[in-house]
Amino acid sequence: MKSIETLRDEHNAVLFVLDSLEPALTAAEQGVPVPADVFTDVGRFFSIFVEQCHNGKEEGAVFARMPASSTTTALTHQLEQEHENGKRLSAAYTAAVEKYTPGDAASAAGVAKAARAYGVALRAHIDEETSGLFVSMQESLASEDDAMTAEFDRIELEEIGAGVHEEIHAMIESLPPRIKPWADKAKVEA
Ligand SMILES: [Fe+2]
Ligand SMILES: [Fe+2]
Asked: Could you tell me the pTM of the whole model?
């Protein structure tokens, strides 16, 4: 199903960002002055790409279509709660990044702790959706694939707009080369 492929691609983008971010966190924790914009760009990715766009698609186009049954209702309820929890973890990350000073290991430790807490939650949530939500979509929503895909496109345009979408994808690709020089410093200093 096209709708599942779209969500899976977006999950892969989230996992790519989390994996790319980890060496920046490790370096910053050692006092390497990783530029703050690495962390603020990831914060923007969390709030626009993950919370507004991706979670918006799931809630507005998928959960809302799930047939009412005790199993699917329990599943979508749990996933919605995880989205809510994600918003709190994302806000905590943003707050930690605001206090971050490049080269200051203590403020970097706050960023690393908040980023990893959200990362753990995001990875578990993605596993949950891959094994639970996608199977339910195949079972119950195969005939609604086109309608869901059309709504995904509408949500994407309304929530983030074509220009911002391109910009965020370029930002995702930029992360590993931007982080590498600082990660390399951490290895030398460690
Ligand atoms: Fe989700
Ligand atoms: Fe998801």
From this structure: 0.95
